[in-house]
Backbone:
């Protein structure tokens, strides 16, 4: 059974930092590209960052220089380090994996940034 479990969200002030984690199970984690997405109230879900099986990363322009995606294949976990947080980063953050079986999402973790 494929599971993605996010953690690490919370409430911070602008300029603060958080590190999100997504623990994966039920598939060969090291072989798959993982992604972080976010959805703010009233907005569509958007891509934040991805990391391939060999560690290549992409980051959305609106988080470049502030957020960093990484992975630990020994722990089957993908991370999102978020620095210099802004109020507009407030959203529910989800991790995602695309498998032959289908597209899987975690339950999400709430990040709230106050000004």
Residues:
């Amino acid at each position: 059974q494929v599971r993605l479990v996010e953690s690490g969200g919370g409430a911070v002030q602008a300029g603060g930092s958080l590190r999100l984690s997504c623990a994966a199970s039920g598939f060969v984690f090291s072989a798959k590209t993982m992604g972080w997405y976010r959805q703010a109230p009233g907005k569509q879900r958007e891509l934040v960052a991805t990391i391939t099986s060999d560690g290549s990363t992409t980051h959305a322009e609106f988080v470049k220089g502030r957020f960093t995606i990484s992975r630990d294949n020994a722990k089957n976990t993908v991370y999102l380090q978020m620095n210099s947080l802004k109020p507009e980063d407030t959203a529910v953050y989800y991790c995602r994996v695309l498998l032959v079986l289908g597209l899987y999402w975690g339950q999400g973790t709430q990040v709230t940034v106050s000004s």
User: Anything to note?
Assistant: The chain has a mean pLDDT of 97. The chain has no helices and eleven strands.
